Amino acid sequence: LVLALGLRDGVLAQPGVSQTTRSKEWPTYGHDPGGMRFSPLTQINPAHVSQLQVAWVYHMRPPQPPAAAAGPGTAAPAQGRGRGRGGSGFAASETTPLVVNGVMYITTPYGRVVALDPTTGKEVWVFQVPAGNPSTRGVEYWPGDAKVPPQIIFGTGNGRLYSLDAKTGVPTETFGDKGSLDMNTPEILGGMTGTVG
Fold first, then answer.
1. Per-residue confidence of the chain (197 residues) as pLDDT tens digits?
2. Cys bridge to 138: 74, 96, 120, 173, which one at CB 3.0-4.6 A?
3. Rounded CA gap, 82 and 130, in Å?
4. Which of 127, 131, 135 is nearest to 109 (CA)?
């Protein structure tokens, strides 16, 4: 699966982000607290959208080691969940990237949350989820407060909620159990059967 930089810019109505970046970013799913999914930017318009070219490409699936390097008798690396489009072996993704303070944040169907430079596509940091996969819809940004720096928050398919430092990708020690919280508790499930996720 490939993520190409597209038209993910917009207005920001969130504290913790400078006024100069408000018209150039996409700080939450749906763009703003009202989920309007609208960008007021006018640099790209119907008159010349057909002339756009790919600025960069990011491969969500991490590089796989060659079979020979894995050693004899070692199984081939996993190709993702499911067969992918056209039997490609790539896992599908429906993530909505966020762009906040000049950094793009995405989840991948390969158990990773990634921060990227939105102008080059280069990785700023990568967090490998210990178990399960992050939400396929993306992450959320919290601007922080006097005690905690800005955070990237996301849930996983196995019912955990994570909080990562937005600048470093390191789990927040003071959140839950060293950066994650089990959502499959009697208090959260409230008598429902099954699991969160």
1. 344 433 333 333 445 544 444 457 878 777 777 777 788 788 888 898 999 999 999 988 888 776 555 555 544 444 444 445 555 567 877 788 999 999 999 999 999 999 999 999 999 999 999 988 898 777 999 999 999 999 999 999 888 999 999 999 999 999 989 999 988 877 777 766 656 65
2. 96
3. 20
4. 135
| Structure token digits, residue 51 | 């002339």
Cα–Cα distance, 125 to 151 (Å, whole number): 13
7, 99 in Cβ contact below 8 A? Answer: no
CB 129 within 8 A of CB 111: yes
CA distance 58 to 145: 32
Tokens coding 156: 């996983």
